[in-house]
Amino acid sequence: MKRIILTTILAFFAMALFAKSPRLAVEKYFDGRYNSNPNVETTIIKSENGYFRSLSIAPTEKAIIEEVTKAFEQDKKISSSVCDTWSGGKHDIILSFFFNGQPVSMGFESAPGKKTEVFISGHPDAFK
User: Fold this and answer.
1) Using only C-alpha atoms, what is the Rg of the chain?
2) Are 51 and 122 in contact (CB under 8 A)?
3) What is the pLDDT along the chain (128 residues), one digit of tens a residue?
4) 83 CB-near residues (< 8 Å, 6+ apart)
5) Which residues contact residue 125 at a Cβ distance below 8 angstroms, ignoring those fewer than 6 apart?
6) Sign of torsion, CA 5 21 33 62?
């Protein structure tokens, strides 16, 4: 009986060790799919202590904006905090997460007729 209990406890411990952090739905849009699109600007900055990614999408790219907005809304459901700001016709949203014990911030900015901006920022260990 003790052996079964010990095996069960060790199995749960092993699963916890090998569990991956959840992936953000927005992350998939930084895979290079828009690198040749002149209406989408992708920025990726990697350093030892930071990992920053952003998309700037022209208002003419309505399908891309809709896709990214849906992904952002999915991520909003799992965030640890949400800050919504409306000012001068512009809507800003900042989400906070903790992955692998590291804080991650994600932002979204939109305004009618203007570029839609999305960013993800955090320590590189948060994305492993």
Assistant:
1) 18
2) yes
3) 545 544 444 444 444 434 444 589 999 999 999 999 999 999 999 999 999 999 999 999 999 999 999 999 999 999 999 999 999 999 999 999 999 899 999 999 999 999 999 999 999 999 88
4) 92, 93, 94, 95
5) 100, 101, 102
6) positive
How crowded is residue 61: how many other Cβ atoms within 10 Å of its Cβ? Answer: 17
Local structure of residue 42 (DSSP, 8 states)? E
Give the span between the Cα atoms of 100 and 58, in whole angstroms: 34
What DSSP assignment string belongs to 55-116?
EEE-TT-HHHHHHHHHHHHHHHTT-SEEEEEEETTEEEEEEEEEETTEEEEEEEEE-TTS-E
